[in-house]
Amino acid sequence: MIPYTIERRADTGVNNVTLGIWLFIASEVMLFGALFSSYALLRVSAPIWPHGFEVLAVWFGAANTVVLSIMTALILRARALDPRAARRLVVAGSALAIVFLLIKGLEWRGEIGNGLVPSVNTFFAMYFTLTGLHALHVIAGLVANAWALMGASRVGEAMTMGRIRSLALYWAFVDVVWLVIFLLFYLT
Amino acid sequence: MTTRWRRGVSAVAAAVWCAAGSTTLACPVCFRIEEGPVTSGVRAAVVVLIGVTVGVLTGFGVFIARFVRRAAAESEP
């Protein structure tokens, strides 16, 4: 059994939680990598591929890019603060993640209302698959944030800060995936 | 794995490679189609997936190398 410790191990240089989150992120990279590979296949082999900036609401995408980047910066900043201030930043970050989901929901509503559904073409099939999977990751991150905040009084400050540090890695990954999606779907 | 065993496996792999010829190299999606949109698409997809896989494996390699270095430093008297 792997002991639940928050101290850095001398042999690895990281604690078990950080090592676990890195392994999880590696598996997530492979998941999104397979989908980006499918995107490359469909895009290169398609005779016609629409420009994202012509069919999507780029302003929604740009707003979401700003929101998610600020959110990630807040959580990354929280790692270096005292536990109370760190928890406040996680709350603020969670609020921004909810804003991201609301903007995304508005964007999807407009697209679906205009008949731009996954069955229209492979562009929209990939768009809804990747943005949908990404949104699920944002929801999972929100659940994890709530779990870390609600368990803070029970597990103590040291363990809560360990969880916040792991969450920061996760949110940085979610932000990078969004930047790639924004580049591939909205700007090209 | 012994040297003899390794040589045996290499010889069998070489024999299969020579006997099978182009069939072993052919992609089941673009079989016998040298150029075309589907071939280009499959090629791009493979490049992306190889890039992602190499990136992840490089990360694992760096992690493992770091562990080995630290473990060696720890075991030194």
User: Given the structure, what is the number of helices of chain A?
Assistant: 7
- N-to-C CA distance of chain B: 33 Å
Helix content range of chain B:
over 70%
How many separate structural domains of chain B?
2
CATH evolutionary superfamily of chain A: Cytochrome c oxidase, subunit III, four-helix bundle
Most residues in contact, chain pair and counts: A-B, 22 and 24 residues
List the helices and strands of chain B in order: HHH
CATH class of chain A: Mainly Alpha
User: Taking Cα atoms only, what radius of gyration of chain B do you get, to the nearest Å?
Assistant: 20 Å
What count of structural domains of chain A? 1
Number of strands of chain B: 0
Outline of chain B, from the CA principal axes? flat
Q: What gyration radius of chain A follows from the Cα positions, in whole Å? A: 19 Å
Helix/strand/pairing category of chain A: mainly alpha
Characterization of the model:
The complex is a heterodimer of chains A (188) and B (77). With 188 residues, chain A is an all-alpha fold. Chain A has one domain (16-186): Cytochrome c oxidase, subunit III, four-helix bundle (Four Helix Bundle (Hemerythrin (Met), subunit A), Up-down Bundle), CATH 1.20.120.80. Chain A is 79% helix and 0% strand. Chain A has helices at 16-45, 52-55, 58-78, 83-113, 122-150, 152-155, 157-186. Chain B has 77 residues and is an all-alpha fold. Chain B folds into two domains: 1-28; 33-77. Chain B is 79% helix and 0% strand. The longest helix of chain B has 39 residues, at 37-75. The mean pLDDT of chain B is 82. Chain A binds chain B through residues 10-13, 22, 26, 29-30, 33-34, 36-47, and chain B through 37-38, 40-49, 52-53, 55-56, 59-60, 63, 66-67, 70-71, 74.
